[in-house]
């Protein structure tokens, strides 16, 4: 949102004798709430603060459901169907320890990214994305932290269980997600966010994390 619009929102709130910081309780930006309240003619900012809070709750529920159905299937159900989660003890212990570490490492950006999407008022599911481009949290290092996390967890399970078949499966998962990102997600995001996404795409790699986090412009969400 342009700085001028944000400033106008805060001033309108002050002119009504309200505290600009009050809306921060809901995690909403006061510069977003005020113009929407004035546009509706209600003038009741608290109503919109509650609305944002409800939208965030719904997004959190949607993200949780998608988390169980999508990553839960790819990382849990399918590996179990392939291996029964039985361990091949012929693999060296250090390899299996490294696998357990990768499972935990992959889980961190996956969960964190889902939380960030929910706070942005949307879900990772293509049918219910957030309104604004999410370029915070793990997305500052890599554009696809959820997919990277999923593949990392599958590779980790392959090492932990000593199952080469899961390494083949991990490669198949990466090929499928890379194709989905290249031919659907990237064109969709470019059409929806224009120059903002172009700048983000140019600065942050899709699969190889940056050494240092990217600092997005103030207007980015």
Describe the structure concisely for a colleague:
This protein is an all-alpha fold. It is 66% helix and 0% strand. The N and C termini lie close together (9 Å).
In terms of topology, how is this protein built?
Elements: H1 3-15, H2 30-40, H3 45-69, H4 71-83, H5 93-119, H6 145-161, H7 164-193, H8 195-203
Kindly describe this structure:
The protein is built from eight helices and no strands. It is mainly α and 221 residues long. It folds into two domains: 61 residues, no CATH class; 154 residues, Four Helix Bundle (Hemerythrin (Met), subunit A) (Up-down Bundle). Helix 3 runs antiparallel to helix 5, helix 4 packs antiparallel against helix 7 and helix 5 packs antiparallel against helix 6. The longest helix is centred in the C-terminal third of the chain and has 30 residues. The radius of gyration is 21 Å and the shape is elongated. 30% of the residues are buried. The N terminus is likely disordered.
CATH domain topology of the largest domain: Four Helix Bundle (Hemerythrin (Met), subunit A)
The fraction of residues assigned to DSSP E strands is: under 5%
Structurally, the number of domains stands at 2
Tally the helices: what do you get?
A: 8
Structural class: mainly alpha
Protein traits:
disordered N terminus; mainly alpha; elongated; Four Helix Bundle (Hemerythrin (Met), subunit A)
């Amino acid at each position: 949102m342009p700085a001028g619009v944000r400033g106008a929102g805060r001033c309108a709130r002050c002119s009504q004798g309200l505290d600009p910081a009050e809306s921060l309780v809901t995690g909403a930006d006061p510069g977003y709430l005020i113009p929407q309240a004035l546009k509706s003619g209600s003038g009741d900012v608290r109503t919109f603060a509650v609305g944002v809070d409800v939208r965030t709750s719904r997004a959190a529920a949607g993200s949780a459901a998608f988390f169980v159905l999508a990553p839960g299937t790819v990382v849990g159900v399918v590996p179990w169907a392939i291996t029964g989660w039985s361990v091949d003890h012929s693999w060296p212990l250090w390899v299996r320890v490294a696998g357990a570490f990768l499972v935990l490492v992959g889980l961190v950006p996956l969960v964190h990214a889902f939380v960030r999407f929910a706070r942005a008022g949307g879900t990772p599911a293509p049918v219910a994305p957030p309104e604004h481009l999410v370029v915070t949290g793990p997305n500052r290092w890599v554009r696809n932290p959820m997919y990277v996390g999923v593949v990392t967890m599958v590779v980790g399970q392959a090492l932990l269980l000593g199952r080469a078949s899961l390494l083949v499966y991990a490669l198949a998962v990466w090929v499928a997600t890379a194709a989905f990102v290249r031919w659907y997600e990237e064109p969709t995001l470019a059409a929806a966010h224009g120059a903002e996404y172009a700048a983000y795409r140019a600065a942050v790699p899709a699969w190889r994390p940056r050494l240092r986090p990217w600092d997005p412009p103030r207007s980015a969400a």
